[in-house]
Amino acid sequence: MIRQNGDIAEVKRRIRAYFCKHVDVTVRLGRNKSMRFGGRVTGVYPALFTVRPDDEAFLGKTSYSYAEVLCGSIALQLTPAAREKPSRA
Predict the structure, then answer these.
(1) CA neighbours within 13 Å on the CB side: how many for 59?
(2) What is the Cα–Cα distance from 53 to 42, expressed in whole angstroms?
(3) CB 27 within 8 A of CB 73
(4) What is the pLDDT of residues 24-80, one digit of tens each?
């Protein structure tokens, strides 16, 4: 079941606040499968945002739509280090 987490404008504001910060990304692949990785939000666009994984050997999708976050398919959370100090832009 898809759950709704607020509205799309709220999701866009939250992702925009994560720009250039390290985040933990959880991708729910369905059927009790998920993938987690750390990275940095490198692009925020009107329809999608991009995450650059910390692992150079990462072979996966790194651009996501705001609707995926809204429906719970993708979850982003600031890493503890990113919360403690402001990032340089």
Answers:
(1) 0
(2) 10
(3) yes
(4) 999 999 899 999 999 999 999 999 999 999 988 888 778 999 999 999 999 999 988
Predicted TM-score (pTM) of this structure: 0.79
Is 23 in contact with 40 (CB distance < 8 Å)?
yes
Distance, in Å, from the CA atom of 59 to the CA atom of 57, rounded to the nearest integer, reads 6
Tell me the domain boundaries of the chain.
Answer: 8-84
Cα 9-22-61 angle, rounded to 5 deg:
70
Q: What is the DSSP string of 24-47?
A: EEEEEEETTEEEEEEEEEEEE-SS
d(CA 24, CA 75): 8
Q: What percent of the chain has pLDDT over 90?
A: 65
Q: What CATH architecture is 8-84?
A: Roll (2.30)
- Nearest by Cα to 11 from 87, 73, 81, 82: 73
